[in-house]
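Teaching note: in complex prediction, the entire set of molecules is handled at once rather than each chain in isolation. The prompt given to students was simply: 'Predict the structure of this complex.' The entities are:
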Amino acid sequence: QVQLQQWGAGLLKPSETLSLTCAVNGGSFSGYDWSWIRQPPNQGLEWIGEITHSGSTNYNPSLKSRVTISADTSKNRFSLKLTSVTAADTALYYCARVIRRRLGVAGTLYYYGMDVWGQGATVTVSS
Amino acid sequence: EIVLTQSPGTLSLSPGERATLSCRASQSVSSIYLAWYQQKPGQAPRLLIYGATSRATGIPDRFSGSGSGTDFTLTINRLEPEDFAVYYCQQYGTSPPCTFGQGTKLEIK
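The expected output is the structure of the full assembly:
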């Protein structure tokens, strides 16, 4: 059974860089897309970005200038870096597996959801 | 960016009743890109529905999804005590960003 284990620094000062890593255990890393999502205290979910099975990345435009998502396929893990953090970046950060498949003659891209999630990592930004 | 608006914000029902949760998109969303999640306190979200109508693995058949275009619905029949949680809709199309609705809290009446 696939599990995602995530870790990283939990307390940051303004202007520092947030760094989190998510390891894929018990399953394949290749062939899947991987996302980061965050949830500020008592708020909803915000998509941060993704790295696809081909290594391309897509980011939320609201964070794009500060975000980098990368993958180390040899270690079955992917990472998030968010620069110049402020108190607004305080949140519970999740990693998740994204299932997409191209089907049919036309190769339509179907989305099957984020089916596996990490346990979450709390990041607090405070001076 | 596609904005998803969920209603109601809070839904108060009793076990055994039916819950109907709405998700309205600011522009048309292909059904193949619409998903629903359940989140309980202290837990990560859990995938319930993908492709607007397909139940994820292990999801009871009292959960069902419907809709198309800009209006989607999650229906939970015969509410069980463990169903009281926050529910999010999500669209994850071919163009970023992926977006979530703001959530509907289903609470025990």
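Point out the following to students. The radius of gyration of chain B is 13 Å. Chain B touches chain A through 27 residues (CB under 8 Å).
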